[in-house]
Amino acid sequence: MRSVRGKLLSITFILLLVPSLLIGTISYITAKNSLNESGQTMIKNAVTQAIQMIDGYQQQVDAGEITLEEAQEQVKTYLLGEKQADGTRPNTNPIDLGKNGYFVVYDEQGNEVAHPSLEGKNVIDVKDVNGKFLVQEQIKAAQNGGGFVQYSWAFPDNPDRIGEKIMYNDLDPNWGWVVTAGSYMEDFNAQSNSILWILAWTIGISLIVGAVIIYLLSNHLSRPINAVKHQLNRLSENDLTGTFEPFKRKDEIGELGNSLAKMKDNLSAMILRIQEVSHTLAASSEEVTASAEETNRASEQIASSIQLISENAETQTQQAGSSQEAVHEISEGIRGIKDHLVATQQSTETTSLKVAEGKNRVVNTEEKIHDIQEKSHRASLSIQQLGDKSTEIGNIVSLITAVAEQTNLLALNAAIEAARAGEHGKGFAVVAGEIRKLAEQSGNSASQIQELIFDIQNGIEESVTFMKDGEESVSAGILAMNLTGESFNEIEKASSVISEAANNVLQAVKTLDQRTASMVESTAKTAEMIEHSSAESESIAAASEEQSASMQEVAASSAALAKMAEELSGIVAEFKLG
């Protein structure tokens, strides 16, 4: 893997090299083209000057000052020098046409009118190395109003060396000469090669100096980055020991180092806090488990007591039915008394027996009702204690909910810090996410437990209300039974004096009939209340069973929470803290 310093060196070197090469190449090409254009202008001006000179000499010929031959020779001499004995000319033209430049004059048939070494020869069919008829092209350009012709030609001092040559051609209207002048392109743009060397040296020195500066700068930048990399590697291995000194820089790298140091400190503090919370969570879950087990045992005991109350209520219902039947029998006996006034003595004896039996049954019924009242009171107290226990459980569940919310917040903060750590914080982000899920599950379980406890408390409050109603009904039954007992006493007294007060028997029987009707109604109500109490006892028993099941769920949730706390402690233990 390439380092940041290597990448920085490569990129910066490329950024130096590419613009330098572009600038150098463009400068070289521009200078070369400019020199070529200057050379073309120079040879064009030279040809124009030669045409003007011919025109001047023609004027002298027209004036009769010199002959045409003399005029033409003087022009040749000016352009190429005096003709030597061997027919050549020394090319002593005062006009600068470059190192290898010279004038050439043709006629329109391709004969050399003036040439340094080929004067008098016909070169109409001469070709360059590429097969181009260069003389024909020159004559055609001149006839077309003047123009440049380029072709490839060997250098005079080195026949094996071929160069690009350019000639400007124009037609003299006076003598019909095709005047051309030119040279090799190299003669014009030779100075551009020196520019190329200067640019090469400049670029090379710039690259060397730039490379040194870039190397020093890259070291200055990569040194703190490597320190950050080393610290992040330690963090990725859950190693939070040691210290990390912030950089004494005011740029982005300095801010990165300061942020890393702050993140390490915050992460260490967060891990310590998670350790404390996990220990607290484990202890709280154990307490909740113990409380749930205790509440479960109490619920089972209450359910057993309610079951006993229910069984007793069924017995009381049967006894109340018997009492009601007895009361009906008394009523029938009283009606028999009214129907058989003739046999008052016999009816009085029978009535005395029935009254004694009814009195005993009333006493028994009263005792049963007292027993029901006492057991209902006990059941009411047990249900109230159950309500107090459920309130305590609700407080513990609220504590669990608060701990879960705090754990969720800590997990969220841990995930945020892990996200800031980037790629190296992904592992811790997964751990923080799992912690957050566990906290959310704990909070959801606690909320479900809270709802169950709320339902139990509502059921307990309703049960307490029903039990109070039952106690009031039992008290009313006791009062009715006392009245019944008093009625039986009166009947007994009346029966004892029947023989002495026969005339008052009928009135006494009517009174007794009214009293027995009231007693029948009271016994019927008593039986109904006992049945209602029995049904409520069964409802309370079912609620107690539901609470017991809920407490078992609370115990299971607490055990799971304790296991999660242990797992959280194990995860946190993987971090090395200084």
TrEMBL record:
<keyword id="KW-1003">Cell membrane</keyword>
<dbReference type="Pfam" id="PF00015">
    <property type="entry name" value="MCPsignal"/>
</dbReference>
<dbReference type="Pfam" id="PF00672">
    <property type="entry name" value="HAMP"/>
</dbReference>
<dbReference type="InterPro" id="IPR033480">
    <property type="entry name" value="sCache_2"/>
</dbReference>
<feature type="domain" description="Methyl-accepting transducer">
    <location>
        <begin position="291"/>
        <end position="531"/>
    </location>
</feature>
<dbReference type="Pfam" id="PF17200">
    <property type="entry name" value="sCache_2"/>
</dbReference>
<feature type="transmembrane region" description="Helical">
    <location>
        <begin position="195"/>
        <end position="217"/>
    </location>
</feature>
<feature type="domain" description="HAMP">
    <location>
        <begin position="219"/>
        <end position="272"/>
    </location>
</feature>
<dbReference type="GO" id="GO:0005886">
    <property type="term" value="C:plasma membrane"/>
</dbReference>
<keyword id="KW-0812">Transmembrane</keyword>
<dbReference type="InterPro" id="IPR004089">
    <property type="entry name" value="MCPsignal_dom"/>
</dbReference>
<comment type="similarity">
    <text>Belongs to the methyl-accepting chemotaxis (MCP) protein family.</text>
</comment>
<dbReference type="InterPro" id="IPR003660">
    <property type="entry name" value="HAMP_dom"/>
</dbReference>
<keyword id="KW-0472">Membrane</keyword>
<keyword id="KW-1133">Transmembrane helix</keyword>
<keyword id="KW-0807">Transducer</keyword>
<dbReference type="GO" id="GO:0007165">
    <property type="term" value="P:signal transduction"/>
</dbReference>
<protein>
    <submittedName>
        <fullName>Methyl-accepting chemotaxis protein</fullName>
    </submittedName>
</protein>
